[in-house]
Design brief:
By secondary structure, the chain is an alpha+beta fold. The protein has one domain. It contains 2 helices and 5 strands. It has a 5-stranded antiparallel sheet. A hairpin with a 4-residue loop joins strand 2 and strand 3. The radius of gyration is 14 Å and the shape is globular. About 8% of the residues have low confidence. Pfam families: XdhC_CoxI. This is XdhC- CoxI domain-containing protein. It comes from Ktedonobacter racemifer DSM 44963. InterPro entries: MoCofactor_Util/Proc, XdhC_CoxI.
Length: 105
């Protein structure tokens, strides 16, 4: 959280809404460990990372939805044999669950 906190404080000081995405679990190989965070401002600025880039666009999209609605989302990303290669997933073959919530403080 320390790596994204200065950006969050700056955005909040400017009156912006902010969502934070947190890796809450992983199975197998994944680029970030549980606890990794990605913060997103309502203007689209980002800080941190939950995946090293492979699923970040989908997480950022969900964060914007959460900022607007106030409703948290639980996302899961991974690749199974049934998935096609065009589906968003982790190229490393693992699975992560990401919780996205709006910061209302």
């Amino acid at each position: 959280m320390h790596d994204v906190l200065p950006d969050i404080e700056n955005w909040r000081a400017q009156g912006e809404q902010v969502a934070i995405a947190t890796v809450i679990s992983m199975i197998g190989s994944a680029p970030r460990l549980p606890g990794a965070k990605l913060a997103v401002s309502e203007k689209g600025e980002i800080a941190g990372s939950v995946s090293g880039g492979c699923v970040e666009p989908a997480v950022i999209h969900a964060a914007h939805q959460v900022i607007k609605s106030g409703q948290p989302q639980l996302l899961e990303f991974g690749i199974s044999e049934a998935d096609n290669l065009e589906k968003i997933g982790l190229s490393c073959g693992g699975t992560i669950r990401v919780f996205v919530e709006r910061l209302d403080w």
